Amino acid sequence: MDKLLEIVGDISGWLWGYPIILLLAGTGLYLTFLLGFFQFRYPVYIFKQTFGSIFKKPKGKGTVTPLQALTSALASTIGAANIVGVPAAIMFGGPGAVFWMWVIAFIGMAIKFSESVLAIKYREKNEDGEYVGGPMYYMTKGLNMKWLGVIFAFALMIELIPSIMVQGNAVAAAVIETFMIDGLYTGIAVAIIVSLVVFGGIQRIGKVTEIFVPFMALIYVGAALVVLFMNLGKLPEVLELIFTYAFQPMSAIGGFAGAAIGEIIRWGFARGLYSNEAGLGTAPIAHAAATTDHPFRQGFWAIIGIVVDTLIVCTATAFVVLSSGVWTREGAMEDPSALTAAAFTQYFGSFGGILVAVSQVFFFISTIIVVVFYGSKMAEFLFGSFAGKAIKVVYFAAIVLGSVGAAKTIWQFLDLALAMILIPNILAVLHLSKEVKQLKNEFFTSEKYYLKDIKKEDNAA
């Protein structure tokens, strides 16, 4: 068994190194060219159509508001990667990795946008009258490859069991470390909280995440902004570190072992992509339920998801870690995941450690809520409405089992299962990319959409 786990670990490590990073980066560049660099050309318009329309009644059909769809998707992506993943990227790739994290965020926007647009185009209503969609639907209806949709749905449904165990274990570990509460009790409490939300369907999830996600992100980013103002004089120094060492190797400093240019780019790309889940096909499941009059309009909200997750939350972590200097301390390389807590503790004392632990708990629970919903949609697609409800019970059990450290051996298979989800989704998006371009042309040339919005703005001015 140990030999098998070692082989699986080696395969996963290789796959999630350069092969998948190059696949995602290449796909993002291709889609960016195909769609005419729209994420760079229309940033003001995109912000007006998203954050600028929060208090307006959404147009079109759907089950939840565009904002609720976004916060549901964000609940899944904002998590451990933002708090403990960013310092790991800095320790293995140096400060320059942050620059490449930003670059891949802009490129990844084209992927996340495209998969969300396709999810809206090929969505349908389920037995409960809710709009459902995602990769399994555009594989089935867009590519006429139901077998590929079945593979995607089954792989994601199964992969979420160990994934939820990992999240459950992480919540329990954070609570034990900070509040000394037994992991079993934490697991049961989390399972109850999650069940109260997810059994209400996407509408209840949307209402909860609409409040929960902005609240938890504002607390964490707000604390980072306090650190920024406390260290405003260090901002030029931090930016110089990021931009200088994005293009040249960095030698060892204290606890930092140094990094070659290839590793700098690799770790920056990896952190950006793993954090915002561009290409994984999960966020489109949430966006498919949004009320919208055109698939392209909801795609803008998917772009905002990357802005919040990677450009704001991950950057906040990077600044705190770099400005504090904890990344250069002796022994920093031994436990990069602890650096964010160490940095906040340096500025806020013991409260800083508690702040990070509580943020992690909030992030982990919100992630569990949404991935349980994702898994139930997979079961529903494969076996019908009842199966969608039944699989939730399995996931609740996984939370409790994970909180007591059960089934750690199967965690080795997690990355391999994720690759089985990501690769079919990327292939489907590439095959259907011309349809995304057609929708783009329709949106930007029609008097019903972009031209109408621009005229309204001109008249208002």
Automatic annotation (TrEMBL):
Keyword Membrane included in the entry's annotation: yes
Molecular function, one GO term: amino acid:sodium symporter activity
Main location: membrane
Cell compartments where the protein resides: Cell membrane
GO CC annotation terms, alphabetical: plasma membrane
Keyword set, alphabetical order: Cell membrane, Membrane, Symport, Transmembrane, Transmembrane helix, Transport
Record-linked Pfam families: Na_Ala_symp
Membrane topology category: Multi-pass membrane protein
Membrane-spanning ranges: 20-42, 63-84, 90-111, 147-165, 171-199, 211-230, 242-265, 300-327, 347-374, 381-404, 410-430
PROSITE patterns noted in UniProt: NA_ALANINE_SYMP
Family: Belongs to the alanine or glycine:cation symporter (AGCS) (TC 2.A.25) family.
Family annotation (NCBIfam families): agcS
Designated name of the protein: Amino acid carrier protein
Protein's organism: Sporosarcina globispora (Bacillus globisporus)
